[in-house]
Amino acid sequence: MNIKKLFFIVFVFCLNQLPGQEVSKDTIYELINIDLMDTRAKDFSTGFKVETLDKNLLKTFSGNSVADALSAGSGVNIKSYGPGGLSSISIRGGGSYHTAILWNGINLQSPMNGGLNLSSIPMDLIGDISLQYGGSGSLAGSGAAFGVLRLSSSSGLRKENTAFLSSSVGSYSNYRLALGSNFYIKNSLFSIKGFYQSSENDFEFVNTAKFGSPTEKQSNSAYSQYGIIVDNKTTVGENTTFLASLFFNNYDKDIQTLMSDYTPSEANQVDNNLLVTAIFKYSKNRLNINFKNAYIGAKLHFTDPMSPDPESKSASSSFISELESNYFTSENQNLYTAINYTYENADSGGYSSNPSRNRLSFIAAYKFSHLWDKVNIALSLRQELIDSNFNPLQYSIGVDGNIVSFLDFNFNFGKVYRIPTMNDLYWRETGFAVGNPDLIDESGYSSDFGLTQTIGGDFIDIKFGQSIFYNYINNLIIWAQLDNGKWKPLNKNIGKSKGLELSVDFSSRIFGSKIGIKESYTYTDASTSDDEGGSWQKQVYTPTHNSNTNLWWEYKNLRSDFSLNYYSDRNIDNAGNTLEGYSIGDFSVSYFFDLKKINIQITAKANNLWNTQYQVTSGYAMPLRNYMLTARFSI
Questions:
Q1: pLDDT at 183
Q2: In angstroms, rounded to a whole number, what is the distance separating the alpha carbons of residues 109 and 119?
């Protein structure tokens, strides 16, 4: 408990050291971005395939969630339990808990279940989205076994005063309002954004789970949410900077009726999430020092009048403190060291007690840049102590560089791991399930190799990419049914995934307009087997083939975007039952114009153009063709 008290004292101290503010009328400080919040990602992702989603495409999803933007703008697999329902990410055949989700460098994965609902994060509050393909336990820690999703809210910080108001109306009584402002006060920059959204979500669908496939209207599927993000960057002297962020979100969601149910659902879930960060940065000559502090709080309230247990509540808290240094030993080499302390606790009616754990990590990395003017190499190590137990040493190596003028390569290999969640360890024994305090960590390795070819000219730019990957995980934690009928998590399985990723990014300027197409294709062979020599079975909800196409066109004040996503058949269980593959097409058109000093953007969007009947998760209906109209006013 003394460590917790010390953490709070340091955290409050950092917040209170921000100097008093005075309005400045004649000085503008260029403090535009806060990408340095995640030093390890910026400087040591050498050798990894990293994809940044196009900002113009993201603007068309301003009334949607991060899950929606990822589905349309990337090649990753998003598992969704219906519109507004739980949505999770899968990269290269891994589970949702095998992809770390970082917000401004802080891991948001729940200590209770290892996941994060991407439907609850609105694009109105997000500035940038990037994906790291391939895992690295030494850099990103537990849960980053197959990849990393990085979200940033701070890219909205600008050197000029701005404000915006955005409003949307769409099908199924979908209404949204968002507003925000960027401003500076003396040597500080601020960004404040807030939003509110509600939807009845009462779409029609063809119910293939019932005899005759009747057309029905979805029931008990409404949701509402509101939230706010505040970012601040303050400079003090030449060498010192303070960064602070606050994110709060309330998500109220009715749990939609399953397609096979004849009685409408009455279940509801309310989530409240809070994240606060404070970062002290010092830079002088060759040395950079960051001191990060963060608090993550999550509360869940579930009710179901039709259940034997009609109400349940749970909550979790994480306190994170990290001291890191990045020292440039020479012009082309730098040494990174860090120590991270994380305290996690949880409170749930499903636990027999209120568990907590202390995690202490030691991290070191070294990077060689521009060797022979062509090659970069990064080496990294992590040793983690959980309570009184040391985890195995984690390591990774990444290499990238230029082969010839138009041809680049990347390669990485690293150990990965995932610690059991608190649900896995501490679930109290009931008539249906029981936790397992004897679980050990999942462990394995991740590797990939890629080539990138670039062709450029006066009117055309083309980039081709090819990657092959292989991942292996031992001691996979699987909830298995015992002989007595109870479900219990066991280190029963091993998992592996291998595959191929192809991409082409084409853009051209012709006759005063711009046109571009970005195409990606992924072949994934992911399977699991029990460690007793059982046969290999396909990983559930992992498509063997999926592709993503984005086509855009710009002419003067007009922009149009078309996205097409295809997913092949997916296994839904180990018995070989499958969901049919499907393709979804979306189209949007935006018009920009100025009215005095106000910039106005009008966007019309149509989703599921061909009225495709499909399911992402078995038993959960998805809407047919639907529309949204958005107006955004910026000053």
A1: 86
A2: 14
